[in-house]
Design a protein that fits this description.
The structure holds two protein chains of two kinds. Chain A has strands at about 5, 10-15, 20-25, 30-35, 45-50, 55, 65-70, 75-80, 90-95, 100-105, 105-110. By secondary structure, chain A is an all-beta fold. In chain A, strands 2, 4, 5, 6, 9, 10 and 11 form a seven-stranded mixed sheet that branches. A four-stranded antiparallel sheet of chain A has the order 1-3-8-7, with no helix packed on it. Chain A is globular and about 40 Å long. Chain A starts with a strand and ends with a strand. By secondary structure, chain B is an all-beta fold. Chain B has no helices and eleven strands. In chain B, the strands form two sheets. In chain B, strands 2, 4, 5, 9, 10 and 11 form a six-stranded mixed sheet that branches. In chain B, about 35% of the residues are buried. Classes of the chains: A mainly beta, B mainly beta. The interface of A and B includes residues 41, 91, 101, 103 and 104 of A.
Chain lengths: ~110, ~110
């Protein structure tokens, strides 16, 4: 089966600009996650969707980050405006029943 | 909140030996714990899940133990190979979401 797809793979922007990431989960996976992974750290959950509803967004900086999951399938994560500390890899993952998660390759964001 | 500790120093071992990685947590015992492998430039890959009522779980050359008294999980790779070189992440369940440790980098040399 096809894995989790993410695009773009790399993005370089200047601070205060906006950026959007796209994720297509594995077909049939109801749960979708967005993680932020800063170099040298483990992934940190930003937001979790169950179908097209938000289950947990307690660690999402809502003043600048937003996410949506269209029709319970694809998802986009947006940052506006970006800060230097947003430089990280943004990982999308999906799962069937919330146990083992399948990750995409990630988008490496550099904010200059 | 839950704190997870994994050895931040890299673990270097010789091919054929058993690698043992440690994951310690500080607060309540999670309902389950997972281990993932992450290669440079890639997303984590699921390896094993162990529940709080299980002491040990095996999969091929991998073995995971879960000691709720010690608040610790050990991850073993037997007969290690250079291809096992990667970062290994421990993840704990916390109110239906995963909290990841910082990972331990394993280097297996010939």
């Amino acid at each position: 089966e096809a894995g989790v797809a993410q695009s773009p793979r790399y993005k370089i922007i200047e601070k205060r600009q906006s950026v959007a990431f796209w994720c297509n989960p594995i077909s049939g996976h109801a749960t979708l996650y967005w993680y932020q992974q800063i170099l040298g750290q483990g992934p940190k959950l930003l937001i979790q969707f169950q179908n097209n509803g938000v289950v947990d967004d307690s660690q999402l900086p809502k003043d600048r980050f937003s996410a949506e999951r269209l029709k319970g399938v694809d998802s986009t994560l947006k940052i506006q405006p970006a800060k230097l500390e947003d430089s990280a890899v943004y990982l999308c993952a999906s799962s069937v029943q919330g146990y083992e998660q399948y990750f995409g390759p990630g988008t490496r964001l550099t904010v200059t | 909140s839950q704190k997870i500790e994994q050895n931040s120093e890299a673990l270097n071992i010789q091919e054929g030996k058993t690698a043992t990685l440690t994951c310690n947590y500080t607060n309540y015992s999670p309902a389950y714990l997972q281990w993932y492998r992450q290669d440079p430039g890639r997303g984590p890959v699921f390896l094993l899940l162990i529940r709080e009522n299980e002491k040990e779980k095996r999969k091929e050359r991998l073995k995971v133990t879960f000691d709720t008294t010690l608040k610790q999980s050990l991850f073993h790779i037997t007969a290690s190979q250079p291809a096992d070189s990667a970062t290994y992440l421990c993840a704990l369940e916390d109110t239906d979401k995963l909290i990841f440790g910082t990972g331990t980098r394993l280097q297996v040399f010939p």
